[in-house]
């Protein structure tokens, strides 16, 4: 007897292919589907391995045939353009460094794709993400938990998942390490068993974000001045969208010691440079928080927090602030806190939620603005 009908999001890569194979083996009624979200001539010519390429669709189709499941291609190009590409580009023009994978997960994979699956009569969706969905009988709530493989854990990019989404989500790879996933693919004879993992953003396959932002928006970034914090002009920059906090490479500035991007000053079109030791801050302010492991945040809480995808989770205290904002004070200073990136909070192995970083801050700013005991609802 089937455990339920599952629509598996298949990218043509080894992870989603093995996820589909495991679900078949575990007795689910499985169908595969690839989301077509982005294709243009430049990106298609540059890379034939990305999750958006025509060859990826063919790879997924071959895997589906190998494991004996139906397969569809679903068109989400308009949704992706509106809900991922446009906000990504807008964020760059605002001096931020966004994470488009979080936008895609939030709006496309676990919203549009899930709703499509439910409309088609499926009970669940599944992906090849490395993470685990757990259920707390005592609280009656679902939560996202760390995967078995720290190096491949992807929960940072999944923090926006809601209770409804988690209740319909299967993550078959959550208890596996990457090496075992490869072994399963080889043992099953999957045609993508030796396929390389994709490393780049699917719609910017040459990693030239500034080029993409300018072409998409038909705008050209304005050159301006590189300056030190005291206002000393060091040279000219190519436009703010070419830089991110903490960057050293590509500045073209000769100085008595290495310089890094400390801040992007939108009002004066200036890039502030500083020594590495000046990039550290002990606190940050973030907005638009989403919490799924609990219904609300009303008191300070000890957590571990990641300020970017590949960062190590660091001990911190999380504070609710006014105006749909939160603050974090870290036990140790954090390097290059970057507006537009997500800060994701963990308690033991559970993902509590996260928010979008606005800026670095001081401890005093957070403590003065903290709202404690007012039962403010920050529910996701």
From TrEMBL:
Assigned keywords, A-Z: ATP-binding, Cytoplasm, Disulfide bond, Methyltransferase, Nucleotide-binding, RNA-binding, Transferase, tRNA processing, tRNA-binding
HAMAP family membership: tRNA_thiouridyl_MnmA
Active site per UniProt: 104, 202
Pfam family membership, one: tRNA_Me_trans
One MF annotation (Gene Ontology) recorded for this entry: ATP binding
EC number(s) per entry: 2.8.1.13
Family the UniProt entry places it in: Belongs to the MnmA/TRMU family.
Positions of region (Interaction with tRNA): 152-154, 308-309
Task performed by this protein: Catalyzes the 2-thiolation of uridine at the wobble position (U34) of tRNA, leading to the formation of s(2)U34.
Organism: Mageeibacillus indolicus
Protein known as: tRNA-specific 2-thiouridylase MnmA
Gene: mnmA
Swiss-Prot/TrEMBL GO biological process terms: methylation; tRNA wobble position uridine thiolation
